Amino acid sequence: MTGVTGAATAGDQIRVMIVDDSAIVRGLVSRWLEEEQDFVVVATHRHGRLAAQDMTQSRPDVVILDIEMPEMDGLTALPLLLKAKPDTVVLVASTLSQRGAETSLRALALGAADYVPKPDPTGRLATSADFRRELVEKVRHLGQRLRTRSAAGLRLPLGAPAVKPATPAPAPAAPAFQPRPQPPRGTEKLRAYTGIPARVLCIGSSTGGPQALMQFLQGAGQALARLPVLIVQHMPPTFTTILAQHLGRTANREAAEGVDGEPLAAGRIYVAPGGRHMLVEKVGEKPVIRLSDAPPVHFCRPAVDPMFESVARVFGSAALGVILTGMGSDGAKGALAIADAGGNVIAQNEATSVVWGMPGAAIAAGACAGVLPIEDIGPRVSQLIVGGRA
Predict the structure, then answer these.
(1) Residue in 205, 206, 310, 353 annotated catalytic
(2) pLDDT tens per residue across all 390 residues of the chain
(3) Are strands 255-257 and 14-19 parallel, antiparallel or unpaired?
(4) Which of 155, 164, 270, 390 meets the CB 3.0–4.6 Å disulfide criterion with 193?
């Protein structure tokens, strides 16, 4: 792995605590992090109780938290860690299984910032370059984000409402006009909203995405019954299956992983399955789902760019795109394709994003008509679907 350029001072380094019942995992992850110049491992613990007792002493910026441990498991420990040091970022490590996926989503609802799927058994973990890269990148981005926000007196927007069936808000009879918020930093230019009614909604998200997606779907309400909703969340197989179930309960509508050749239907949520790109293609006069095993884009499969670009080709000016919190720049190219085809794109603002990589990249590309806090994106999308121009 490549570290940051130049040696980081002790005060600049991201302080990391590792909590895992496996001594092999603790040693392996410690070595990976300490080979990078911008991290210092301040503590390692074999179960959650020891970690919770040590939070005040070790003062970690980031905690890598295993779920299944003796004495005290990760889910039990998580609220105790955050209570002891509320500005700590918790990254949950769980196995690539249905149980691991369910538990990871529960941890996000309890306040974890993100998760990283852990290969099983330990032998595979030691040789997994993808796991090492993802773990190091997430610790770095989340730690840097925490430092930046702490310096400004802000907290990371972590956690999500408990997942429960939502009662959709009634669709507005007509969109209420509101002044368009200015993008952060005052340097990016926004496009004008077009008045073309949307016939498809596509959403891209990554780090912090599950929480943001649930809040967005609740805010969009009954307007989602009018068009198909396509979602790419950077997740592995099994995790996307469980995510679709949770999103369906949150939005109170049908949701599942997309199936190759499946026609798009209004009111249904299609989640890109982990390990495959999800695209849209026109067959005759009907748009259908296409799944692809093409190489990863931005190290991701599924990726947002291929889906957005296919939506732009099929739906043109009737496409509505949303870019939510996430690391990297995936989605910026696809968002620009939607905007150039005459569609509208909205990005989550910096203040409410766990990581402002993907939304920031889409804004910098000049693709966006709106930059909004997560709580305002659902209502604005509802307005665009119901009434056209915002």
Answers:
(1) 206
(2) 333 334 455 568 999 999 999 999 999 999 999 999 999 999 999 999 999 999 999 999 999 999 999 999 999 999 999 999 999 999 999 887 888 889 999 999 999 999 998 876 656 766 688 889 999 999 999 998 888 777 666 666 655 443 343 333 343 333 343 433 444 454 568 999 998 999 999 999 999 999 999 999 999 999 999 999 999 999 999 999 999 999 999 999 999 999 999 999 999 999 999 999 999 999 998 999 999 999 999 999 999 999 999 999 999 999 999 999 999 999 999 999 999 999 999 999 999 999 999 999 999 999 999 999 999 999 999 999 987 555
(3) unpaired
(4) 390
Catalytic residue check, 234:
yes
- The single residue of 45, 47, 141, 234 carrying the catalytic annotation is 234
SS3 for 170?
coil
The one-character DSSP state at 162 is P
Using DSSP, state whether 179 is helix, strand or coil.
coil
The runs of H, that is alpha helices, within 221-351 are 239-251, 304-315, 332-340
CATH 3.40.630.30 correct for 184-387: no
**Rounded to the nearest 10 degrees, what angle do helices 129-151 and 23-34 cross at?**
60
CA 138 to CA 132: how far, in whole Å? 10
- Known catalytic residue at 298: no
Q: Where are the domains of the chain?
A: 14-151, 184-387
pTM of the full structure = 0.85
Structurally, at CATH architecture level, domain 14-151 sits in 3-Layer(aba) Sandwich (3.40)
Q: From the candidates 330, 353, 376, 382, which is the catalytic residue?
A: 330
